Amino acid sequence: MLCFIDNSSLLIIAIIFIAAGAITWVAGITLAKTTDTLDTRWNIGDALGGLVLLGIAGSLPEIAVVWSAAVHHHIPVIIGNLLGGLSIQTLIIVIFDIAMKGKRPLSYHAGSKMLLFETIFAMIITALALVGLFIPERAAVFQINPMSIAIVVAWIGGVFLINKARMNPAFNVTSDSKEKLPGRKYHERRAVENHAFFVGKSTLHVVIIFLVASIATLISGVLLEETGTKIADTLHIGSGLFAATAIALVTSLPEISTGLESIFIGDNHLAIADIMGGNAVMLLIFLMADLVAGQPVLSYDLGLPTLTSLHTDVLLTVLSIVMMGIYAIAFIRPPQFRILRMGWDSIWQIIVYIAGMMGFNMIK
Prior knowledge:
Layout: H1 2-6, H2 10-42, H3 48-58, H4 60-71, H5 75-99, H6 106-110, H7 113-132, H8 146-166, H9 186-190, H10 203-234, H11 239-251, H12 253-264, H13 268-282, H14 285-293, H15 308-332, H16 344-363
Helix pairs in contact: 2-3, 2-10, 2-12, 4-5, 4-10, 4-14, 5-11, 5-12, 5-13, 5-15, 5-16, 7-8, 7-13, 7-15, 8-14, 10-11, 12-13, 15-16
């Protein structure tokens, strides 16, 4: 596939990139709906194995991009897509906020102690990745960055604690205000078939569609990585920057669609919770990247002649933590009104993200 792309014109490569993005979008939405249906029928969401399955399905576009990049040793693409993807996915919540109806912003309706815990959990996992950027390759364990392992261990422990907290009504209280509209909780969403297309269809039928969507996502993810790297090289754009913006945005398209669907049916809490949960799951992919690439990916930039790339990676990671932190504050002190259809938290998200991208370009 790479040989064909290397010998193609920029226009052809751009068309392939756009087509792969469209397939990723459609297949990603299908994956979300089929996993929702299987979760309902098999009741697997609260089990660790179920959470891993659902997490992998939701992160399949990123997994495909990272796998291809690791095979070709395009390490900046891996770091840019995962760490840049965190900030892009967090920024998506602004779109959900704008899509909300009424006078109150999204975080006002959705905020709760549970959502605060999930956001802090994602921030802690991201902080571990930040530490991993400063661990030299000589400290690797079997060519794996210790923080790649720590992320997995912390995620497993965090999932157990969060699921335990979900069972406690005190942590799920939004507020005494009747104006707040958090929507359904996880167990309530699993109690019914949420996607009419699969009602009456056999479970085998749903599994087959799930597998077809998975294969389509994997193929399109490989194409995104290969064409994206080629576009970045041709236009003299850093592959890490392109992965942190364009590729990260394309692989986040399914989350935008499914999140908007949640907003439109009133599942306001879940729209944000799925983004924060996805942020935590996405960083698990670093372990796979280490194994496939045969080197500690997070340590890559420490071995370069200059630390410029490390600075950009640190900036991306800190940017993601700050953006999630803004929402954590909003869940404690919810915005009461909207400006330009947004709460103050979403406005700050846009300001911080733009400032981060400007800083990224200055470093480059």
